[in-house]
């Protein structure tokens, strides 16, 4: 498995799209952080970029990559090796290279130009989201045979989590605002990895304002380490569950 | 060597293989023939474990393909389409597969030298022509001197010289007592190589017999003539063989 | 001419001076009270180190009481400890601890009652219900005392420095923590609170009611349950204070309620849930302050009028300004807002388009607090942009027509 990770990683690190992605992120990070003498504002811009583009680009690139590598995957599978090892190795190499792109493009400029826990959290968020959405891409790959269909679904998933989900949630919150729905809302948030990532950042940037709301649950959830632990744990599930599902499906998949 | 018993496989409603029973032995060079969609690829992939059989059993040297993956170290597989990661070099591809098959240390690099791939070691796969990639695939299949070769359209896309080189290599391995399973659309390429023919149609195994028998039954010398004859007078010939 | 007069004055004081004595007091059964009773007016009592287990000690004549190396006066949780009822008493260098607790009387470690010109300085007051309690006192100085307690709730605790019906006080350099309110003023006029540190109190760092024409400068209020509350007063001047890290659903850097004709200048509001909360105020000048990393920089209710907000810096706040209505009778100008993204074509340092400091989402989350969980999502970003193009929710009178392009150096 390590062998496959190593060589696929060597391939991906020279991949033009990944290089381009890294450069674009770096340019964005440096320009956003450099223009303003106000680091918080730059941090927020980068948060928006991260929440919007990292999921979309990760899931699209990963889906396309998995479908394009299908013949190579078959060749690897014809060697004496367990099926799930090939799959997990390809996933690892892919997600590590995309995370590296993010860490180099956004993480390093951020940590150099803006000190503080927020920079660290944002870098962590970007990497976690990369893991989540490449994991989802893998699930798309094992679930569907057709590449075009897979790409369509990848875009739909990214769009759903970045925009539609929040729209529905806001509608829900508005229509049931007279009821004690805090707990339900926290529960619902767990079903969107992008929201979880955002909340993780919110807990550090806006804890003062969050403390201003009287909901006991919010205070308990958002005010202490519990909120962060909850968010990270849920994001981890968003990585692990699609991965396990993918392995299960892949073990029975006809190539 | 490879024993296939009651193998069935369907994709949705489409029955790709219907109750196939074949016993392939060492020293045979079996040509797998049949029209498109007849189940050739499915059969190959079943042996490789890429397709999971629905019913039936495949054993290689008595080892079932279902659970244990270690039997695949007996096989050298050359896929129909050689598609590799863009930025991997030829050397890296070889190194990767070598590291995956650590059980073998005697490498058969005859084809690598024959195709002169050793001079292209640093070229990335993206920069290679389809033919060269095919050469890489072929070299990989033969690299570990396996007991079984599964070659899917091996000569497609190869230039005549390389094609000839590959055929010689196949013959040599056959004489060394290896089992060779080969599909090809170009029947003339199989001339002199194939010792047996498996003919599949609509997922059914039509026949599995030695080339000499077929020649005798049809009265034709050339392989493509033999096959053409069979296709024309299928039912009668089939009777004769059986 | 002058030296002659001076000599006469000095001679007039001579008898008093010659009779004043210094008396050393040692620990013993009621030795402190006995020493007071035996002392004459103007005598100095030097309390030697040790533990004095006494309470309800009454200083009813003009004395100077000096603790040597902080002798401990221990009330043993029974009652109040020191009463000062005479003018011009000086009390310094004592460690006064363990008053009783009662729901009937306010148990104080040091109580100054109906006296003027008292000085209470350099004392330590530990683990008392009330630390220093001033009642009907005037011209009294409370200086450099350390006052600590471990209160857990508002009901069973008292205030660090408590002043009621006083005037002309100077409260300076004290460090108060762990009480209900750090410093409490009720009906106190023309007094100054300067250079104190009030932190980790259960309720307010400073609680201030019906107290007119007072000044508080250079104090630091941090981590108090509800920050600082200033209510029902006029002519209050607040300068150079730091309000730090007051978090909670009713926690404010400062809460202003029914305050008039007052000034808030050069203060720093850092990391509070609400930096400055204003309700029913009139004519307040809020200038040259820093509002940094608060939940809300300012919450100004529609009941406020005639206040000017100028030359303040607003940086890193989740929301800069929030309000509860659509009318706005207060004026914002020349502030620096880090969220402003207008332009300055004529390069005069002032943005060419107004800044609207009320964020849509602050209005939304005010109505539906749960919606806060969606803050900073792509969706809420769109809402902000839409509102900028077609304003419909935010009060359009609340704006800064002359936003600064660069931060004020304050």
Automatic annotation (TrEMBL), chain A:
Organism: Chitinophaga ginsengisoli
Name used for this protein in its record: Cu-processing system permease protein
Listed transmembrane segments: 12-35, 47-70, 91-114, 120-141, 153-176, 196-218, 230-250
Signal peptide: none
GO cellular component, one term: plasma membrane
GO MF assignments: ABC-type transporter activity
Keywords: Membrane, Transmembrane, Transmembrane helix
Pfam families on file: ABC2_membrane_2 (PF12679)
Automatic annotation (TrEMBL), chain B:
InterPro entries: AAA+_ATPase, ABC_transporter-like_ATP-bd, ABC_Transporter_VariousFunc, P-loop_NTPase
Keyword Cell membrane in annotation: no
ABC transporter domain sequence ranges: 2-227
Pfam families attached to this UniProt entry: ABC_tran (PF00005)
A molecular function GO annotation: ATP binding
Signal peptide: none
Tagged with keyword Lipoprotein: no
Keywords assigned: ATP-binding, Nucleotide-binding, Transport
PANTHER family: ABC TRANSPORTER ATP-BINDING PROTEIN ALBC-RELATED
Protein known as: Cu-processing system ATP-binding protein
Phylogenetic lineage: Bacteria, Pseudomonadati, Bacteroidota, Chitinophagia, Chitinophagales
UniProtKB/TrEMBL annotation, chain C:
Source superkingdom: Bacteria
Listed pathway(s): Protein modification; protein ubiquitination
Record keyword Cell inner membrane present: no
Keywords, alphabetical: Repeat, Ubl conjugation pathway
Pfam families, per the entry: NosD
SUPFAM superfamilies, per database record: Pectin lyase-like (SSF51126)
Residue ranges constituting the Carbohydrate-binding/sugar hydrolysis domain according to the UniProt record: 47-186, 197-361
Protein name: Nitrous oxidase accessory protein
Organism the protein comes from: Chitinophaga ginsengisoli
């Amino acid at each position: 498995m390590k062998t496959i990770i190593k060589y696929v990683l060597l391939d991906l690190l020279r991949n033009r799209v990944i290089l381009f992605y890294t450069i674009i992120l770096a340019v964005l990070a440096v320009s956003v952080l450099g223009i303003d003498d106000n680091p918080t504002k730059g941090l927020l811009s980068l948060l928006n970029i991260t929440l919007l583009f990292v999921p979309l680009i990760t899931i699209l690139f990963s889906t396309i990559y998995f479908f394009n590598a299908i013949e190579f995957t078959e060749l690897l599978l014809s060697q004496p090796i367990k099926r799930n090892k090939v799959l997990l190795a390809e996933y690892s190499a892919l997600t590590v290279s995309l995370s590296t792109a993010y860490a180099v493009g956004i993480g390093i400029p951020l940590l150099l130009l803006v000190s503080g826990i927020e920079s660290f959290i944002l870098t962590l968020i970007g990497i976690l989201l990369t893991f989540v959405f490449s994991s989802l891409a893998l699930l798309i790959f094992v679930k569907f045979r057709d590449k075009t269909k897979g790409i369509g679904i990848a875009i739909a998933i990214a769009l759903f989590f970045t925009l539609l989900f929040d729209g529905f949630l806001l509608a829900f919150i508005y229509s049931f605002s007279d009821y004690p729905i805090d707990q339900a809302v926290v529960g619902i948030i767990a079903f969107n990895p992008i929201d979880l990532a955002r909340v993780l950042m919110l807990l550090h940037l806006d804890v003062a304002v969050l403390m201003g709301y009287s909901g006991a649950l919010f205070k308990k959830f958002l005010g202490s380490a519990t909120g962060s632990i909850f968010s990270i744990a849920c994001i981890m599930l968003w990585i692990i569950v699609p991965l396990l599902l993918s392995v299960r499906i892949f073990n029975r998949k006809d190539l | 060597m490879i024993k296939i018993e009651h193998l069935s496989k369907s994709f949705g409603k489409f029955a790709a293989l219907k109750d196939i029973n074949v016993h392939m032995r060492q020293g045979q060079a079996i040509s797998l023939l049949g029209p498109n969609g007849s189940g050739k690829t499915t059969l190959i992939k079943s042996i490789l474990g890429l397709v999971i059989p629905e019913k039936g059993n495949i054993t290689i040297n008595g080892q079932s393909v279902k659970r244990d993956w270690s039997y695949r170290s007996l096989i050298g597989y050359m896929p129909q389409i050689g598609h590799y990661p863009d930025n991997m070099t030829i050397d890296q591809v070889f190194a990767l597969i070598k590291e995956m098959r650590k059980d073998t240390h005697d490498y058969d690099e005859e084809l690598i030298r024959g195709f002169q791939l050793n001079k292209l070691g640093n070229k990335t796969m993206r920069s290679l022509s389809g033919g060269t990639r095919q050469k890489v695939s072929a070299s990989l299949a033969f690299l570990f001197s396996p007991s079984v070769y599964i070659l899917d359209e091996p000569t497609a896309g190869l230039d005549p010289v390389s094609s000839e080189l590959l055929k010689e290599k196949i013959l040599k391995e056959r004489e060394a007592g290896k089992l060779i399973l080969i599909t090809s659309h170009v029947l003339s390429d199989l001339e002199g190589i194939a010792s047996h023919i498996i003919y599949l149609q609509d997922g059914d195994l039509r026949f599995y017999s030695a080339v000499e028998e077929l020649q005798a039954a049809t009265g034709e010398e050339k392989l493509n003539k033999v096959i053409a004859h069979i296709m024309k007078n299928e039912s009668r010939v089939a009777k004769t063989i059986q | 001419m002058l030296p002659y007069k001076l000599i006469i004055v000095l001679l007039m004081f001579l008898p008093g001076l010659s009779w004043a004595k210094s008396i050393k007091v040692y620990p013993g059964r009621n030795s402190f009270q006995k020493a007071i009773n035996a002392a004459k007016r103007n005598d100095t009592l030097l309390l030697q180190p040790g533990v004095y287990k006494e309470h309800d000690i009454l200083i009813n004549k003009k004395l100077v009481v000096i603790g040597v190396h902080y002798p401990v006066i221990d009330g043993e949780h029974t009652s109040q400890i020191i009463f000062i009822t005479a003018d011009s008493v000086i009390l310094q260098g004592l460690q006064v601890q363990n008053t009783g607790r009662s729901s009937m009387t306010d148990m104080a470690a040091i109580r100054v009652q109906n006296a003027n010109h008292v000085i209470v300085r350099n004392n330590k007051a530990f683990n008392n219900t009330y630390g220093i309690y001033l009642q009907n006192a005037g011209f009294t100085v409370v200086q450099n005392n350390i006052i600590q307690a471990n209160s857990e709730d508002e009901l069973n605790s008292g205030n660090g420095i408590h002043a009621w019906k006083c005037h002309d006080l100077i409260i300076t350099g004290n460090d108060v923590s762990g009480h209900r309110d750090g410093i409490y003023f009720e009906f106190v006029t023309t007094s100054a609170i300067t250079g104190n540190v009030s932190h980790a109190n259960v309720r307010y760092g400073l609680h201030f009611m019906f107290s007119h024409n007072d000044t508080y400068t250079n104090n630091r209020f941090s981590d108090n349950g509800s920050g600082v509350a200033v209510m029902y007063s006029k002519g209050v001047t607040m300068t150079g204070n730091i309000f730090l890290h007051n978090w909670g659903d009713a926690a404010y850097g400062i809460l202003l309620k029914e305050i008039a004709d007052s000034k808030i200048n050069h203060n720093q509001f850092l990391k509070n849930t609400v930096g400055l909360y204003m309700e029913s105020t009139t004519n307040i000048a809020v200038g040259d302050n820093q509002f940094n990393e608060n939940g809300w920089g300012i919450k100004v209710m529609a009941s406020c009028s005639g206040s000017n907000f100028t030359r303040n810096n607003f940086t890193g706040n989740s929301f800069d300004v929030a309000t509860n209505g659509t009318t706005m009778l207060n004026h914002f100008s020349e502030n620096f807002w880090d969220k402003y993204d207008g332009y300055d074509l004529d390069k005069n340092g002032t943005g060419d388009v107004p800044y609207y400091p009320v964020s849509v989402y602050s209005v939304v989350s005010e109505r539906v607090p749960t919606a806060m969980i969606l803050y900073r999502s792509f969706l809420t970003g769109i809402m902000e942009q839409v509102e900028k193009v077609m304003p419909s929710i935010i009060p359009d009178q609340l704006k800064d027509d002359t936003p600064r392009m660069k931060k004020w150096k304050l």
